[in-house]
Structures are given as structure tokens and as C-alpha cells.
Amino acid sequence: MAKIQMKTPLVEMDGDEMTRILWQMIKDELLLPYIDLKTEYYDLGLEHRNETDDQVTADSAHATLKYGVAVKCATITPNAARMDEYHLKKMWKSPNGTIRSILDGTVFRTPILVKGIQPCVRNWEKPITLARHAYGDVYKNAEIRVEGPGRAELVFTAADGTQTRELIHEFTGPGVLQGMHNTDKSIASFARACFGYAVDTRQDLWFATKDTISKKYDHTFKDIFQEIFDREYREKFEELGIEYFYTLIDDAVARVMKAKGGFIWACKNYDGDVMSDMVSSAFGSLAMMTSVLVSPAGVYEYEAAHGTVQRHYYKHLKGEETSTNSVATIFAWTGALRKRGELDGLPELCSFADKLEKATLSTIESGQMTKDLALITTLPKVKTLNSREFIRAIRATLETL
Ligand code: NAP
Ligand code: MG
Questions:
Q1: Do the beta carbons of residue 35 and residue 23 sit within 8 Å?
Q2: Would the CB of 301 count as within 6 Å of ligand 1?
Q3: Which end of the chain offers a freer environment for a tag, N or C, measured as fewer CB atoms within 10 Å?
Q4: Using CA of residue 118, residue 123, residue 126, residue 130, what is the dihedral sign?
Q5: What backbone torsions phi and psi does residue 150 show, to the nearest 5 degrees?
Q6: How crowded is the C-beta side of 134, counted as CA atoms within 13 Å?
């Protein structure tokens, strides 16, 4: 059978440890036999990041801006232990952080549903996608531990020197203080990423904050979302029959628990941090989750939501068998290939991506899966496969579709 041809390369960001091993297996077994794969390759493995003084990470992000679609393998974010392990020149920053700051993105994470892995919440029938704003608020705060009585004020000094003051509290004893910020620009780009993603995936968009209590801070988020929706997206939403609605965060939480799923839930930075952990674990597993960074410029970077699975890698190095779940990494590839197909008008590339996803899910549903899923599945007859056997089993299913 002739291989599927591509027009524009994907930006391929290779990574570290066990996921780097899976990356190569996926390419060898599931992609290269079927696609004349065109990629612009960037090695984001820690050794090469170190050799290039991390220039390769920035280069890969700029290539993403140029080509529009990237697929990223999980990468090590160095800490003290990694400094010794890899003899690093410097404790390089998190590649995801670097890429995000260049692409100015919002991260969308969606659980992958499969028969035999049941969500803890019975009425969740479709995935709930979390859209997390990844800038500011408590993640870029300033804090003071107050040791005794005194007056705390919020002071803003404008460029012309004029000051605005707001009393925070007259302390009569010890306590704590916190200051945080966000910018209209960042909130607007978060809003556009959410609306754009809702249009792309034809799903309703929910957004919630605590604007009744936070009448300026959270209210600004609400207002900016509403203005951008009315001005730029309302017509498109009506045309597609999808809805944007804003509600209070407590109301949103209550409704999510009663909902069927099938929508996007946009969250402020902290809410998104907490709620995505809740939603993903309630749906089953981190390895059963897609993750895509969407920039307001319409640029997409697909990745797995989990890390490099270090413990499995050390077993692999010792020659021991591993049973690492490659689903999230496979779906990073299919997401990227499908988007490339859409942008380049290559329906056969899109349908290959659909087929590979279907083959992956059918393989699991037929009872062949990795250990992490075998431990939680409700299916009666289960065959636990090692990392390579699982990928080969997917290939065997793919051949039958
Ligand atoms: P991790 O790689 O996500 O793994 C944590 C544990 O979760 C694993 O030991 C394993 O549990 C389980 N697990 C995760 N993914 C799995 C999969 N695909 N299949 C089966 N089990 C899976 O997190 P970590 O060990 O804390 O971090 C390792 C490295 O990844 C760190 O250097 C960190 O910086 C990096 N990281 C990168 C990203 C990214 O690039 N997006 C994200 C997070 C972390 P068992 O050992 O019990 O089987
Ligand atoms: Mg968290």
C-alpha cells in the first residue's frame, strides 16, 4: 500500500527517558510503515539541551510558530539530582515553560475514554476538557509573613508617579499577606484560545470565577471573556449551535458533577491546577489524557500530560521488562497529524489519525493493555502486555481496520 504523503513538516520535539523509548517504538511500528513522515526534528533530550545551552528548546518553539503544528515528547525538568546525573552546565528551565512563554498558550487537557475504564462519576459519559490559564495569579505572587500589629496597604505607583492606595488590613497581631496580579493582555489571549478551541472542537465553553467576592480582579476576567465573545465569537458560536456561558465557580463545580461531559471548562490558573487533577484522576489515569497547547496565533503543540516515567526507564536500562502506557504519546502524534492534515487539506492523513486512535482504543477494549490499566479495568479477561507488545498489538489491530 502506498504511504500517505505529507505537505508541511511537523515540528518533532523528542524527549527523555522512557517516553523517548516509546517515541521511537511508536514511530517505527505505527507511523513510518504508513506515512511518508515529514518532520523537522528537534532533540529536546536533556543531553542535547545541555550541549546547546537550551537553545534547541527556543528553536523548536520558533519552528512551531513557523510551521503551526508540533508534537512533543515528555522531557526532564532538571533539579539538583539531574545536575549530577547529566553533568549539566546549568539547571535549565522547564522546556514546557520556555515553549509556553514563546507560544503564549493555554493548555487543554482531555481524558481519553475507553470501555472498561469507568469514571468515578457515574453520569460522566463524555470527556470534560480542562482549559487552564497558565499565567499569573498566585503562581507569580508576593507574600509577607506579618509578625505583629501594623497597617497593610496595596499601593500602585503609576508611570507618572501618582499613587493609588487601598487598605488591606489593620493588623492587631501576627498574620499573613499576599499580593498577586494578572494582565488584560494575558487574560485576553486565554479567552481567545478558549473560544477558538470551542469552535475547533464544536463544544460548549464554560467559564467560572468568584466575581461576586472579587469585584475587580475576577470580574475583569469575566468582563474580558464577555467582551471578546460578543465582539469576535458570538456569531460563530450561534452558527455552530454551541454555547458560551459564565457562572460562579461554586455553581460550575456543582454543575460539573451533575453533567454528562462533552464540554470545555475554562479555569483560572489555580482553579485549573486543582480541577484538572480532580477531573483526570476521576476519569482514570494520566496516561489516558490528551494535552495540547493552543496559542492565540492558531499554533498547536501536542504532548502527553504525564512525565518521562523515570522509574520505568531505570528498569528498562537494567534490562528488565516494562509495561509503560503509550496511549497519551500516541494521541499526541495523532492530534498533531490530524491538525496537519486539516491545515494542509490532506483528508487521508486525518483519517489515518482517526484509525490509529480507534485501533488503540479497540486494542484496550479487547482486553490487551498495559499494567496501569490492567490494575483498574472492569473488563473480565485481561492480558497485560509489556511496552513493545502493547504497541505491536495496536499495530495488529490497525492492520484489520
Ligand atoms: P511521571 O513521569 O508522570 O511518572 C510518575 C508515575 O506515574 C510513574 O512512576 C508511573 O507509576 C506512573 N505513570 C506515569 N505515566 C505513565 C505511563 N505512561 N504508563 C504507566 N505509568 C505511568 O512523573 P515523575 O516520575 O514525577 O517525573 C519524571 C520526569 O518527568 C521528571 O524529570 C519531570 O521533570 C518530568 N515531567 C515532564 C513532564 C512533561 O514533559 N510534560 C510532565 C511531568 C513531569 P509507577 O512507577 O507506579 O508505575
Ligand atoms: Mg496540580
A1: no
A2: no
A3: N
A4: negative
A5: 165, 175
A6: 23
